[in-house]
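Intended use. Records like the one below are meant for learning the mapping from a protein sequence to its folded structure. Do not use them to infer anything beyond what is encoded.
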Amino acid sequence: MEKTLYVSDLDGTLMRNNEKLSRYTVSVINELVEKGLSFTYATARSVESARAITGDLKLKLPVITRNGAVLADNTTGKHLKKSVFTQDEVDLLKTMLPEISSCGFVSCFIEDDIMIRTYMPGEHTEGLQGYIDYYENDPTLRKADDLNELYCGLPGYVTMIGEREKIAPIYEKTKEYKGWESMFQKDTYRDEYWLEICPQNCTKAKTILKLKEELGYEKLVVFGDSPNDISMFRIADESYAVSNALDELKQIATQIIGSNEEDAVANFLKERLNSPSP
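Structure written out for the chain above:
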């Protein structure tokens, strides 16, 4: 049998629309992992944000967070590997993104396993203000008085949230620089758009390929629902889109399975493990 790595997106795929994992999904995945299934997830979320949802999963492999910029331990939250911007790139971001004060925040590493998110006070887009309000009691979300404080420590990720009309032109500008990865898409749950910028070679696909090679897997099977899953669909041996996925992802999928609300990934894995040829 081929040694197979299974990787699932989190939001809109493994996770239900209430931003939780069902007890069934947790139970199935934990049982299968214990039996030898090599499974992990890949998400744009930080491991801190992801673990609030996935904390009951007993995963043995590193989880892929921040779209591939950080490999982490799902049980402890420890950052196993992380990528950060160079000082020249930080200087370029400061010059290129004057809009960040109204619609963005920066994820910065200030210690080995501590990542904070910094934002500027003032008027914000509805999307950014909603994010700030949601995390208002989270001590890792902090106000910055100036650009130097905004990009403190070791900056590793920039996020901008707002209406398409505001965020799309910023994406067009940032994607011209080839020294980092720039990703733009509509939010899974809300009518807002996200631009995420991270260091070069830190996409889901590139990080999954590194993990696959380092751990000696021969085959890759992935699950997803949104545009930032396209890259990992293209490098997988098998790719499965949940039925609630966007059409552009369904068009390149090996097969369409049930929806995230139906625990489609857990059901697929359960059936696959019990199949004569997993």
